[in-house]
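Entry 14. Structure prediction run on the chain below.
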Amino acid sequence: MINQNITLETIHKDLEFLKNKIIKIEEHMVDVDSIMTEDDYKALRDYEKEKSEGKLTAHKTLKKELNL
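Output returned:
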């Protein structure tokens, strides 16, 4: 049987407890879009290598070369 002696104080304590639980959960959540896969790391390393070797073409230059 449900306890019929529910007071505003009890509700307030329960809400504070739940609020603190949510805060702890949020602190440990991870944004899945910020996780890099092995393919992401490989692509980043390839980009960095191409950039250091001067193999990249700036967007502005490419547009000019393609008459866009």
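The mean pLDDT is 91.
Filed with the rest of this week's runs.
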